[in-house]
Amino acid sequence: MSHGHGHDHGRSAAGAHRWRLQLAFGLVAVFFVVELVVGLSSRSLALISDAGHMAADVVALGSAIVATRIATRKDTTGRRTFGSYRAEVFASGLAVLLMLGVAVYICIEAVGRIGAEAEVASGPMLVVGALGLVVNLVGVALLRGGASESLNVKGAYLEVLADTVGSVGVIAAAILVGTTGQPWWDTVVALAIALFVAVRAVMLGREVLAVLGQHAPAGMHPDEAEQALAEIVGVVEVHDLHVWTLTSGMNVATAHLVSAAARPGGDPTDTGAILTQAATVMRERFGIEHATLQVEPAGSSACAQTTW
């Protein structure tokens, strides 16, 4: 059984939510400039660190937008048989590196302030922190709808979510510095922001590595898929089963199905029925729409020649 291998280059989950990324990018980019200027003028490490994290947001959102454009671009070389969907996963990886970089920067700055007297203007901190909270909450609301469907959007979402926590931290630091007169609260809050950002980055990084490492999709065990295929009438064995995620929302599988119906002189309609049932099982039970399935006659030695 043969079929076309053309791909719909507008199907990616992130592509459907590109407008969310674009709007969030505009909001965050504008406020980043405001927060950086006020952070430098007020000498607030918490505010500067939050501005640094917001700069990472700008880059992450921008790369996510570019990645969705690349992913939906038609291949003109004829060599990218899976399209360019993985660009979205690479953008998520960039978001992870940026988040970790910001966390490291905050820690280095905080250590540099130990034992030093720093004048921190709590008033501007409070105002900008409150405005930043509003901007980030809008960004979170925009990206939440696509975060569960796209790893690319999820990376941007976690960036903005972490920055939302950062804005809360800036507000808390401003209040503590203003009420106690102790500028070290600014450093403590900055370190707390760094820890939160690092944890979220590691969690997202694990998901990115799972996709790049071609692990089975989250929530799916290959043994279950193999058992389901083996239960199809006419199938006597299943081997060479591979399942992986191409990009968010696009899971792929290949498998060899051994059937007595495929032997020379067997009924070809039985082979067709097996393929139809197998494709239905993969699609309806495991959410895999693109499954490449090969039916082999029992006793075939074709797979024995495979060296890996």
UniProtKB/TrEMBL annotation:
<keyword id="KW-0813">Transport</keyword>
<dbReference type="Pfam" id="PF01545">
    <property type="entry name" value="Cation_efflux"/>
</dbReference>
<protein>
    <submittedName>
        <fullName>Cation diffusion facilitator family transporter</fullName>
    </submittedName>
</protein>
<keyword id="KW-0472">Membrane</keyword>
<feature type="transmembrane region" description="Helical">
    <location>
        <begin position="89"/>
        <end position="111"/>
    </location>
</feature>
<feature type="transmembrane region" description="Helical">
    <location>
        <begin position="46"/>
        <end position="68"/>
    </location>
</feature>
<keyword id="KW-1133">Transmembrane helix</keyword>
<keyword id="KW-0812">Transmembrane</keyword>
<comment type="similarity">
    <text>Belongs to the cation diffusion facilitator (CDF) transporter (TC 2.A.4) family. SLC30A subfamily.</text>
</comment>
<dbReference type="InterPro" id="IPR036837">
    <property type="entry name" value="Cation_efflux_CTD_sf"/>
</dbReference>
<dbReference type="InterPro" id="IPR050681">
    <property type="entry name" value="CDF/SLC30A"/>
</dbReference>
<dbReference type="InterPro" id="IPR002524">
    <property type="entry name" value="Cation_efflux"/>
</dbReference>
<keyword id="KW-0406">Ion transport</keyword>
<dbReference type="InterPro" id="IPR027469">
    <property type="entry name" value="Cation_efflux_TMD_sf"/>
</dbReference>
<feature type="domain" description="Cation efflux protein cytoplasmic">
    <location>
        <begin position="223"/>
        <end position="297"/>
    </location>
</feature>
<feature type="transmembrane region" description="Helical">
    <location>
        <begin position="21"/>
        <end position="40"/>
    </location>
</feature>
<dbReference type="InterPro" id="IPR058533">
    <property type="entry name" value="Cation_efflux_TM"/>
</dbReference>
<dbReference type="InterPro" id="IPR027470">
    <property type="entry name" value="Cation_efflux_CTD"/>
</dbReference>
<feature type="transmembrane region" description="Helical">
    <location>
        <begin position="184"/>
        <end position="203"/>
    </location>
</feature>
<dbReference type="Pfam" id="PF16916">
    <property type="entry name" value="ZT_dimer"/>
</dbReference>
<feature type="domain" description="Cation efflux protein transmembrane">
    <location>
        <begin position="22"/>
        <end position="212"/>
    </location>
</feature>
<feature type="transmembrane region" description="Helical">
    <location>
        <begin position="155"/>
        <end position="178"/>
    </location>
</feature>
<feature type="transmembrane region" description="Helical">
    <location>
        <begin position="123"/>
        <end position="143"/>
    </location>
</feature>
